[in-house]
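TA notes, week 10

Several of you asked for a full example with nothing omitted. So below is the full record: structure tokens for the whole chain, then the designed sequence directly under it. When grading your own attempts, check the secondary structure regions first.
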């Protein structure tokens, strides 16, 4: 049994992770400010489910509130920290850059300072496949350089990886950054494609399909993401003794207990196939509004999870047919739709 601080605990991934931690006997300190980026009633419903369970306590704090975050670390002295709180959304960053600076940069700096003071056994934090940016080499490997992010959201996450390395080096805090690939599943975010597609199809409204439907994504079910996070949390990062400063590996470090891992399904699925699976589950055809690529979008993603399998024993299990079905079952029950 351990005290684990989970930031973003009322969020999509954070709420699933908190449930798994509680189920295995850990105590969870949840931090979330319930911001209105999307429907806060969904966040409140996730949080209500957690607060009904023994071992969970909630702190409604803004991540960028330095004094409040520091006080929480000082009071709770968590054994482990999982930072999932962030201003999410690629497209939103085009119009609201300050939100990303506040939450993803200032907020993450506050988490690092809290870890500096409390010295947890491990800090695990969410990065994103978006950091690969203009890189077209597939599958995306953590050993490839990522110097060309194409959105501010991705740039802030890339900055988080660098910030964590500096703190791991200077203060000995083991840090693992996890690059998530297109997460979906029950209790998901309303701004994401599967949620929007389901809502529109049930209302007999057209869905906007970007890239004329030719985009491919490494869709990763939330349960597989959570299993990866748990496995990482339980295996703190260490210095890589084979690291060569003359040929530095971007995924590990010879001077800090720090690493980067991909958490994905490792299979590309065409967007039109994703939509087809949804149509089959709903028993309805979608009205397609084919659109060009949007700024900040990439044509394809696919995770190379070789290192993740080796380091964590990570083995994603859920294919899109099962994952979409489980999402729709939750959606129809939660919204009493159909």
């Amino acid at each position: 049994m351990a005290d684990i601080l989970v930031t973003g605990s009322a969020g999509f991934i954070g709420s699933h992770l908190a449930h798994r931690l509680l189920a295995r006997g850990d105590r969870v300190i949840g931090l979330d400010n319930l911001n209105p980026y999307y429907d806060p009633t969904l966040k409140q419903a996730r949080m209500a489910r957690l607060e009904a369970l023994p071992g969970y306590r909630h702190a409604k704090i803004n991540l960028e509130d330095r004094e409040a975050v520091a006080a929480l670390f000082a009071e709770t002295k968590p054994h482990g920290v999982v930072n999932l709180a962030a201003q999410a959304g690629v497209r939103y960053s085009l119009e609201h850059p300050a939100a990303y600076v506040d939450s993803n940069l200032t907020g993450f700096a506050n988490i690092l300072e809290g870890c500096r003071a409390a010295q947890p056994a491990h800090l695990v934090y969410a990065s994103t496949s978006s950091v690969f940016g203009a890189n077209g080499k597939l599958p995306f490997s953590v050993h490839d350089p990522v110097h060309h992010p194409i959105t501010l959201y991705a740039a802030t996450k890339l900055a988080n990886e660098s910030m964590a390395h500096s703190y791991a080096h200077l203060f000995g805090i083991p840090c693992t950054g996890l690059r998530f690939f297109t997460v979906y599943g029950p209790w998901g975010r309303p701004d994401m494609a599967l949620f929007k597609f389901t809502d529109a199809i049930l209302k007999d409204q057209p869905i906007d399909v970007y890239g004329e439907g030719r985009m491919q994504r490494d869709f990763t079910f939330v349960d597989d993401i959570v299993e990866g996070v748990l496995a990482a949390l339980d295996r703190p990062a260490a210095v890589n003794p084979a690291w060569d400063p003359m040929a530095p590996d971007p995924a590990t470090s010879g001077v800090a207990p720090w690493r980067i891992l991909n958490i994905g399904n490792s299979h590309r699925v065409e967007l039109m196939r994703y939509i087809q699976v949804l149509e089959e589950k709903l028993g309805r055809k979608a009205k397609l509004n084919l659109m060009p690529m949007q700024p900040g979008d990439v044509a394809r993603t696919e995770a190379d999870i070789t290192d993740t399998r080796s380091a964590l024993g990570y083995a994603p299990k859920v294919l899109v047919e099962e994952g979409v079905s489980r999402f729709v079952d939750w959606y129809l029950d939660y919204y009493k739709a159909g």
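The first strand starts at residue 3 and ends at 7. Use that as a sanity check on your answer.
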